[in-house]
Amino acid sequence: MPDPVEELQQNPREAKNHFLRYMKDEFLTLNFYRAHMLYFIVVIAISSVIVYGEGVKNGPKEYRDSHLSYMDALFLTCSAMTTTGLNSVNLGDLSGFQQAVLCVLLIIGNIPFVSMVVVLIRQSMFRKRMSEVMKHSRTMQRLMQDIEHNRQAESSGEGSRANCLRQRQVADQLDRRKSSQANRVDKPVKIQPLSKRRTFHHQTGFGFVPTPWETKLARNLFKRVFDSVSSELKPEQHNYISFKPHLDSKGRFLELSEHDRLELGGVEYRALQALLYILIGYQLFWYTFGVVFLVPYAYRTKTREILRDAQPGGLNPGWWAFFSTVTEFANGGLNVLNANFIPFSGMPYILIIAGALALVGQTQFPIFLRFTIWIMKKCVPKGSRLQNTLQFLLQHPRRCFIYLFPSRQTWYLLAIQITIDITAWLGFEVLNIGMPDIDALPTGTRILDGLFQATGLRTSGAYIIAFSSLAPACLVAYLVIMYISSYPLVMTLRKTNTYEERSIGLEEGGDSAAGIASHLQKQLAYDIWFQFFAFFLVSIIERGHILRKDPGFDSFSVLFEVTSAYGTVGLSTGVAGEDYSLSGSFASLSKVVMLFVMVRGRHRGLPLAIDRSILLPGEELMQRLDAEYGGRGGASSEDPQELITNIGESDSQTGGLKSTEAQQDPERPTSRSR
């Protein structure tokens, strides 16, 4: 690499061009993470102006006999868009239009909706990519005809059999034409695993006494568990393709020929198309579920009296029920009823419906989504195109979607999620023994409220009792659970990454426990420094409140608030006599810090940059990794170099987030240099 100073002296113009190219590639090139964050920032900025402008237009009746400040408008819109749930003002003091804007933000900012947009973009790019390839590939034209085949044949299963027959005929023709190259198959390079020599505790870590999880018993236990989680995928049937696939332990297709590659691309396109409709139907179903069960119940005499007594001023029961449905499914934590769910303590109907929406909207979203696809596969006609497409989704979920995992990992995720929820419930019941407000509750109400609070503790932010009534030890337990709330989902997402080895630098063949440890280490490194830096800044800014011991202000409460914001949970120790979060009493500069915390916290659960479910068809990184993992099959009868060149040229036309260096089809493996 030439010396920058020397290059600047010898050729200033070229040095300037190199610098500008570097800045463009480094900071202006969009990837998934940057595009995701840009989407949130732009929407928050626009909606904050709308909410603030509505407050100015409607005059001083909005909030505390004064206009809603822009900082509070920005804080509320950021909290809604990131589905955090901290509120610097009471939502009941806002106008109906402002509440409606926040409701829309909760819908377009939640995990199911945003991930659905990712699928929509990938599907659109996939179709555009296939259209480009189809211009130069007779094989692809036949496959596209299969994709667009009359769906009326699906009910009888004839379409699937006809497609397989046609694909086999094409494959036979290609095999005969490339018989001279049939044996030219480059096997993937096998990287030998690291040596597993015995090591001693004084040779590992910091060389101190081993922690409980470093003991031989613990390591063996975790190794058995994680190895069983990532055992080799062995699906019984692959009816969606005409060739017999060769899969590795992560379900990656190996040694694909040209025809196999194109055929698999058609199947994946159909899977994305089906998944898009499933995600739309999934959200509409649960929104409808909440509205149907909550809106009529909200108009019952008893419920209307509770709403009127809890918040005088004419809160519309139907609007409360609809907003509660949206905020619970989005795990948003915000509520037009200032007291949240406290007035409904001990009311099973409302708490069960709201708790169920919170589970299916985020913490159990991957589990219920896979269950939905599995049910659909059982219900559609056997052998139909749709059933084969659903089978592909179930067998190769992480090729298509961020939050869809293989069967075994989904079961483990469910077990871990239930374990955390039960732990939170037991903590509520046991640690609050002797607390007057908790002991005053009837046994049934106490159990029900504890279970509901356990669901709200993870990410929904709904609460059933004032946190000032809880024991200090319970608050500490809640703090820890809020911090790790997203870890089960994030670790599963990282571990099931098709390109896991390259994403974290593992050697191929390394054990699963090492992979989990590496993911956990990187996630902790990503989280801890930022969270405690934010806590440090807020503590400096709010020093006066803390030293004066103003109501609600102490170091633990500030740490609790920052952790809740970073975990996008929305729970708060609050301020005595007020319903809004502790953030409402923060200085404006502290609120700015909290804005950064909420936005970054919303993005900590995203997949790594090297993840096939977010890469666009034609992206250079996707092609290179598919080639690295997939090996190379036989050459096509068509001119491969011409096809590659034409596909590479089409990158400049497809736009979006693709790299300008792409030179081949999404699934095309390249030969390794010898």
TrEMBL record:
Major localization listed first in the record, in broad terms: membrane
Keywords: Ion transport, Membrane, Transmembrane, Transmembrane helix, Transport
GO BP: any one term: intracellular potassium ion homeostasis
Biased composition (Basic and acidic residues): 665-674
Membrane spanning residue stretches: 32-52, 73-91, 97-121, 274-299, 349-376, 462-484, 528-546
Compartments where found: Membrane
GO molecular function terms attached to this record: high-affinity potassium ion transmembrane transporter activity
Membrane topology summary: Multi-pass membrane protein
Stored Pfam families: TrkH
Chain intervals for the UniProt region annotation (Disordered): 629-674
Keyword Transport tagged: yes
Keyword Cell membrane: no
Entries under Gene3D superfamilies matching the protein: 1.10.287.70
Ranges of Polar residues composition bias in the record: 643-663
CC per GO annotation: plasma membrane
UniProt-listed PANTHER family: HIGH-AFFINITY POTASSIUM TRANSPORT PROTEIN-RELATED, POTASSIUM TRANSPORT PROTEIN DDB_G0292412-RELATED
Protein name as catalogued: Uncharacterized protein
